[in-house]
Amino acid sequence: MTIVLVPDFDCIAVNLSRQLKHSWIKNQILYYSLSTIVSLWKQGKSNLGDEQLEDLNSLDFLVNNMVDGFSPLQLIDKLRPFEHLSISEQTAFKEAIQSAYLEKTNLIELQSRLKKTASELGGAIHDFSKIWCLPVTQNSTLLESAWLKIRGLAEQLESELEELPRGILLP
Predict the structure, then answer these.
(1) How far apart are the first and last CA of the chain?
(2) What does the pLDDT look like over 63-101, one tens digit per residue?
(3) What angle do the packed helices 107-132 and 53-69 form, to 10 degrees?
């Protein structure tokens, strides 16, 4: 059984996963209908694909740091009961905790899936940005197809982000 601890101090991984799920995926991708996207394109609005790049960087940061981001190791340096341990005792304790944590969670497997989805979404956004730059006189079919691909990947990413812990995992 794994226990989830929601600490009083900031847990960057938890905060970032929530931010990506709500502020980016829901509000900047899933919120927009296909007709809204086509309308914005025809109005010559700024490239929506380019606006997604910062969030893609945040997603890459989360994916690359999520195993440590939900690890109980960060508690050892922050909670008072552990401050009296010697450096060697802290190191041995950290190794045992990390080993149990990785053994009892599926974060490595989830990280692999998130990396794949993030990569596919990044490619889809890149393709969308190129299509956005086409003259508005072009048929909107390419743009619509590219946006639907982004939406599908965003829904998949949202589902995968839902699987992330809501706090630090204690084995």
Answers:
(1) 7
(2) 999 988 888 887 777 777 777 888 898 889 889 888 888
(3) 170
